[in-house]
Write a structure and sequence with these properties.
- The chain has 308 residues and is an alpha/beta fold.
- It has two domains: 5-223, P-loop containing nucleotide triphosphate hydrolases (Rossmann fold, 3-Layer(aba) Sandwich); 227-302, 2-Layer Sandwich (Alpha-Beta Plaits), CATH 3.30.70.980.
- 33% of the residues lie in helices and 30% in strands.
- It has a six-stranded mixed beta sheet, with helices on both faces. It has a four-stranded antiparallel beta sheet with strand order 2-1-4-5. The protein has a four-stranded antiparallel beta sheet with strand order 12-13-11-14, covered by helices on one side.
- Helix 6 (167-183) links the parallel strand 7 (155-159) and strand 8.
- The two termini are 44 Å apart.
- It binds adenosine-5'-triphosphate and magnesium ion (MG).
- Adenosine-5'-triphosphate is lined by residues 16, 21, 39, 41-47, 193.
Length: 308
Amino acid sequence: MKKEVVLQIENLHKSYGQKKVIDGLNLSVERGDIFGFLGPNGSGKTTTIRMILGLISLDQGSIILNGYDVQKDFKKAIGKVGAVVETPKFFQGYSGYKNLQLMAGLYSHLPPGRVEEVLEMVGLKNRGRDKVSSYSLGMKQRLGIAMALLNQPEVVILDEPTNGLDPQGMKEIREMIVQLSLEQDITFFISSHLLHEVEQICNKLGILKEGRKLAQGSVKELLQKDYEAVEIVTTSREKAVKVLQSTGFARDFSSTERGIRLKVDKGYSEKLIQKLVSSDVPVQYVIPENQSLENYFINLTEGGSQIA
Ligand SMILES: Nc1ncnc2c1ncn2[C@@H]1O[C@H](COP(=O)(O)OP(=O)(O)OP(=O)(O)O)[C@@H](O)[C@H]1O
Ligand SMILES: [Mg+2]
């Protein structure tokens, strides 16, 4: 069964002056996803999130949220959405409970006890009556998420929810997101610049670089490649490249400290070795690279220095 698309971004563009920050971005998030919006610093994650939430205008393209166009039907589009963008702000001298209560006053139809409920969901029930000024960064982050949950959203957008937290704090936020996704049926759109972070909880990933999408899919799909990456340790880089270039099953050569790295079509690694040996290329080792998502991400966002 095809799942409902809750966020559809098409051909999105945004410039600041001459600088193109978002450059033709397309994305789609389905109901139930924990979607990781991954990209290095400055790639345009926060800018995209601000446009989704109507905090800044877009230059071109469209954003459809819960079936409504953010530019045309903003109120309807944003109705079932909660968000935390960058560091949430609170009244430090008030308790977490009081902060939430003030916010709850802005919504007309919240069920009684909702503030207690969201405090419990984010694991702050026992500290709810303490002043926010006494909270750790992780607790403030959770209070921000509690605020985003107040209005019973179906979609929650979090901009770098674990930024600045220690490993334990990060783990707690991750576990909380997974739990909310399962127990409250919430779709999450989470930005991060940390791959291992999104890898652990997200079922889908969109990878962003300089305002463009480099890849989107499930972690499994992204790694299901029709090639293997190998490093050849050799003192004759040029000869190795020359010999292999003509084979048709090797490509994308780049230089490494000890030799070259390249992509070989699946099933051709034996032929690759035969070819090198029969052409008298001195080969010390042929090392298959562990195609982890980390390698995949680094290759995509940094690229190697191409030599052929
Ligand atoms: N108001 C603005 N005026 C000018 N340039 C801006 C503005 N906001 C963002 N930019 C630029 O847009 C680019 C993308 O910024 P953005 O904050 O969206 O990146 P990001 O992916 O969220 O990065 P980070 O991981 O550091 O949070 C950066 O080059 C940034 O300097
Ligand atoms: Mg950002």
